[in-house]
Design brief:
The complex is a heterodimer of chains A (261) and B (304). With 261 residues, chain A is mainly α. Chain A has one domain. Helix content of chain A is 73%, strand content 0%. The longest helix of chain A is centred in the N-terminal third of the chain and has 32 residues. Chain A starts with 14 loop residues before the first helix and ends with a helix. Chain B is 36% helix and 29% strand. In chain B, helix 3 packs across helix 4. The model of chain B has no long low-confidence stretch (mean pLDDT 92). Chains A and B meet through helix 1 and helix 4 of A and helix 2 and helix 3 of B.
Chain lengths: 261, 304
């Protein structure tokens, strides 16, 4: 085992030009990108919210669609960060050899991985923001505290970008990402309280749920939309930060190994 | 000492495989240095070690007075790289590629934009400024990659097989540009397996095989030190049979490769007279070149 792979990350501001590069590419296709981020979660939220919600009683004092809104903000942000870290990240690392070009400059791999995470989080922030805007426009939330959703979306983005990059670092090809979406993202959507309260699950699954980052994101988002300070918010933030930092470190170690071959 | 780059006893293994095996090298300021070798000789790994992208298992490296890999980041500020495989940004135009790349060196947009016309002219891409990369020809992409490597006005330029896959016109244009860079005092380190390229461009060469440098010197020195000055190539179905009977009598050394026989000799006249008596054989008499040296040193068998 090589000790250098495990060295602490060395961060510098040189990650900013990489972030700007990704932003420049994004600007060129912003239209379709925004539509994609917005259409899917909003269609789900409206369809299920009004369709299914019509047959359901209130949940915790709110309508079903208002309940769903808190989950949708988080899962839309999660999806956006994951797609960016997996598919686009893999393209930049492997297919387009963008990283290889950057590594020949005074920028290091640590800067690149940091830039990827911050970039994916920035992009997913936009997804979260778009959903939040729809929530406000539909009058599903009148809460001043809902403004906290904005930094929360960024944190959720950091968290899932970091975890996603671990998968990117291990992936031999794009096909590999299907495993992650099928075995991690989809179960998370169903176990973490996006569509129904976690306490409806059997106790064993509730325990699993309490370990997953999306649960903690939703536990923060849902009260904020109804203008309540989330109970135990320190713990939830700590869990999301913990996932972010360990994901960053682990993916960096894996990328160091992969790219030194 | 005016060494821009020096390597001492450099060694790199991947598992059991020794890729770079005790490499010693010193490159002077203003020199165009060529690293020759068959595929898998360790050329690209050597370049990656020198840039500090991978860490050697043993040995010492200095690039522009910085210890590599420890201070590789500082060294790379003054280095340009033309990689073997194009890695231009396909989403960007020619000018955007240069702009974005310059930012990685911490150069301000204003400074890059000021240099842009000069870089585009050097790359013969002035008219293609706002064209997207995927629509460029192979030669244009290479020239853009070269211009990109100059965006930070580097002292040293690493070029990994800069003309592989280009047609002769495109190749000659690149060669001309590389000569201009040496004339400006830039230090060039290039890897290639085109002997013509090495012979035309490089002041000094090192022939590399199995991770080791097996011979080094100017192109002329390599030829003088390693091989007889004259070559007679003999072709034809009977060439091999003829060689068995006659080549050894007149040539210091000969090699059979398929239906061709390569005779290496100091004085070709006796052999040429002998060939007059065999009208069924075609032949070519020429001075020895770098390719002969290369094949002698690294063998004729295929590397894959």
């Amino acid at each position: 085992m090589n000790k250098r792979y495990y060295a602490a990350p060395q961060l510098s501001l040189r990650f900013i030009p990489i972030w700007r590069r990704n932003f420049m590419v994004w600007k060129k296709m912003a239209g379709s990108s925004i539509l994609g981020h917005l259409a899917d979660p909003v269609i789900y939220m409206l369809g299920l919210g009004y369709g299914l919600g019509g047959m359901l009683p209130q949940i915790g004092g709110t309508s079903y669609i208002a309940f769903l809104a808190g989950g949708t903000v988080c899962y839309s942000t999660m999806n956006s960060a994951s797609f960016e870290a997996l598919y686009s990240g893999f393209a930049r690392m492997h297919e387009q050899r963008t990283w290889e070009a950057i590594l020949n400059t005074p920028v290091t791999l640590d800067d690149i991985v940091c830039a990827e995470i911050v970039w994916a989080a920035s992009k997913s922030l936009l997804s979260g923001l778009a959903v939040l805007l729809v929530i406000w426009l539909l009058g599903l939330s009148h809460s001043p505290l809902s403004l906290w959703i904005i930094p929360l979306a960024f944190l959720v983005g950091l968290c899932f970008a970091s975890i996603g990059l671990i998968v990117t670092a291990l992936a031999p090809s794009y096909d590999y990402f299907m495993y992650y979406f099928t075995l991690a993202i989809t179960p998370m959507v169903l176990l973490c309280g996006v569509f129904f309260p976690v306490d409806r699950l059997p106790a064993m699954l509730q325990n699993v749920s309490s370990l997953l980052p999306l649960t903690h994101a939703i536990d923060l988002a849902r009260p904020l939309l109804t203008n309540r300070v989330p109970p135990g918010f320190m713990l939830h933030i700590a869990v999301l930060l913990g996932y972010s930092l360990s994901g960053f470190y682990l993916s960096l170690v894996l990328f160091r190994k992969r790219l030194s071959q | 000492m005016n060494a821009v780059l020096s390597a001492r006893n450099l060694r790199k293994c991947y598992g059991d495989q020794v890729v770079v095996d005790g490499l010693n090298l010193s490159i002077q300021r203003g020199e165009c240095f060529g690293l020759l070798g068959p595929n898998g000789a360790g050329k690209t790994t050597t370049l990656r070690l020198m840039l500090g992208l991978i860490t050697p298992d043993e040995g010492e490296l200095q690039l522009l007075n910085h210890a590599v890999p420890q201070q590789a980041r500082d060294a790379r500020v003054r280095v340009g790289v033309v990689p073997q495989i194009d890695n231009l940004d396909p989403d960007f135009t020619v000018a955007e590629n240069l702009l974005v790349y310059g930012r990685y060196f911490g150069i301000s947009d204003a400074a890059i934009n000021a240099r842009l016309p000069e870089l585009l002219e050097f790359a013969n891409l002035t008219g293609k400024r706002d064209v997207k990369v995927p629509t460029l020809s192979g030669g244009m992409k290479r020239r853009l990659t070269l211009a990109r490597a100059l965006v930070n006005d580097p002292d040293v330029i690493f070029l990994d097989e800069p003309t592989t896959g280009l047609d002769p016109q495109a190749r000659h244009l690149i060669w001309q540009r590389l000569r201009e860079l040496t004339a400006r005092g830039k230090t060039l380190l290039l890897t290639t397996h085109f002997m013509e390229e090495a012979e035309r461009l490089c002041h000094r060469l090192a022939v590399m095989d199995n991770g080791r440098i097996i011979s080094t010197g100017s192109p002329r020195e390599l030829i003088e030190q390693n091989i007889e000055p004259q070559v007679v190539e003999v072709f034809g179905e009977q060439a091999e049979a003829w060689a068995g009977n006659h080549a050894a009598l007149h040539a210091q050394r000969f090699e059979v490769s398929g239906e061709s026989v390569f005779c290496y000799l100091a004085d070709a006249q006796p052999l040429l007279r002998e060939l007059q008596r065999h009208p069924e054989l075609r032949y070519l008499h020429r001075p020895a070149n770098l390719e002969d040296v290369f094949l002698k040193l690294t063998g004729r068998e295929m590397r894959e």
